[in-house]
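hey so u asked for the seq, here:
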Amino acid sequence: TRTHGHQESILLKADPQEEYAYVFADSFVLSYNLFTKKVIQSFNNTFFDENVETFIPKAVDLTNELAIVTGYSPYQRFDLHLWKIYPIQLRPKMASLCPVSNASSIIDNIIRMGKSDQTPKNRNYGMSVSIDPSGRFTAFGSTLLNIVRIYKISDNKNCARGNVTFGTIRPNIGSNMQDIGFGRSIAWLDDKGTLAVLVYKSTNQTWSESEIYVFKNISTNSNIVDAQPDFILPNNQQTLAPLPKASFLFILAHANNLLILRNDHKYLYVPATEAGNLPTLIDSWKCHACIMRLKPCVSGSYKDAPGVGPCTVCPPGLRNPGYRPSVHCQACNLTSFCPRGASNEVNLNDFLSYNQTFSYPNSPIIDNYDDLLILNFLNIDHTIHCIVASPLFWAALAIVCCFIIWLIMCLVKMRRINVMDTHRKRIKYVLKKFDLFGEGKHWIGGLISFVILFLIMFSCWFAYDYFHSYPIETAKTYRALCKNNQMNTKFSNGLQVPLPAADGTLWKIFEMLNHQNLTMTVYLINTRTLCDNIIVERLRYRGTPQLLKIKGCNLSNIYPVVSFSVDLYTHTENIQVTINGPHFIGAVRLCLYGPQLIEDTLSGIHRLRELDVCNLFYTENQTIGLTTNFNVRLIKVINITEPLKGNDRIIFDGRWAPTTKYVDDLSDELYFEKDGQYLRYASHTTKFILRFKEETYFLENIQSPIIRLQALVFHTLLFFSLIIEIVS
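ran it, structure tokens below
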């Protein structure tokens, strides 16, 4: 430098055997023997290209025999800088293999490069180069263009026009993220085409201000435009904690291991761990040379090959509890719930949805008690229970018994059996006393009276049973399981708007519903996330979110299920549940609970029913999405039970009928398929947002008896008299 003066750029690199060092500067190039400590060769600024007066080298990589240098060269006519790539022979003597300009299309560079006073001196507009360990490919990165181009070494050495690009990698980013510094530094991790690309300005700055995109099989795939990385460092399994956030300046790779230089003067070494483990643990944030230590794959994931990246999610039907290194996932029972990312087998029958609110049945078609009495005699079911409960059966049985008695009486008389004749006369005397229709003249009338007595008894039984079949909530009727069972209840229902009523009978139950304290319980199914990683917040329209206290958080001893509860302040909350960490979630179950309350007033009995409902959500064979929105609609249901007896009071039953639906997609599988599977590991949180809302209308159900006690007694007596009149 004392000979050639100020240099815009100086690059120094030693060969892999550490025998020679090479210097590439603006105005000179030299080789230096590290053992003899002597300069072997030295050249001026025309070494690279005879037709180029000035070439500013920005990046270099080399093997023992070949160096690839890339940089900028001024284009005076348009006051621009062009991207140049030069292959350099190192042994036996240094020589530029393409002394004539071999830059890509001038038009392509003019459109893309920008003004000369911006490009070479701006550190954000850097360049990088890396030679594949197999010696077949070279990768070039340009942060100005946000691209990485792949060339074959043979095309570089043969001075192919434009160097014949093998492939180009452009990050799949939005239009507002053009200056992210993609390609600031690049490194081949192995000879199988695994390329690490430094992105200086991270699009996700949760853990670091920079990221490293890792692409696999680059050397075997020429169709790599807008390629998606296989994974990104850092990610939710490799967060770099407890190190503070910083930018990455440079990366180096050797034998699948990665070294990162940060702008806080720390070196981060990411070793290629064995299959079943991943590098993730850092001892202290105070380290200068920080080493990531291995840890077994998290539950629901596996790693079948050595490397610096995270573990991969288990496919559907496979599981990994996560207690030890996992090279592959274990097979699940075919009948168990085992989606993608499963920690273990789960029986979903233990976590089913259930509801407390059902629609009222329709009012019976026949609501005339006289018709029901007749229908009760003619109706018969085929089950033993209902046959025994049928009056027709017992009437037929009584007729058969009477026929048998009549037959015996006739046989005794015809055969003149003296021994039985005395008994026959006594029975005949008794039957005449029971003759209700012939005024004691005929003993046959007594038999018929017994049949009529059976019919009357069963009519009384039916009247009693029918009377006590109201209301349906407490009905205990013997005929409940029989076909065409008739209840002493008629129904009416409809949606109502809570308008002011003259008597104000409904306002008490409304008030009780509005003041019912609700508790939400969340079940995270098939996951091993920790309770310390769960945060529940109340989102407010003004101000910062309010942290809610979590109650009863625990991990089940039977299944990989985490459950916790929070109290809701109001019925119109916006609740956000945040689960930090890399764990996958197979299903979520949302439950609401509210205590019951009974108040007795002059206007009636007001009963606030206990709320206990649960809803299970999952997508077959997939994990729950990174952010899922749920709408919870609360509908008031008012059941009004009118009194059965004159001195009874009206009963108002109130309960909430929640309806929970998720918005958009429950799983992010389509998102991952479109934008890249690496995004599955890029997010540090899984969020559920629940929006509670009370509907302005309410559902009113009214049940009233078809017949009350006085009318029932009167119509039953009329039916008795009708039977007696018909028979007589």
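The chain has ten helices and 40 strands. The longest helix spans residues 391-415.
lmk if thats what u needed
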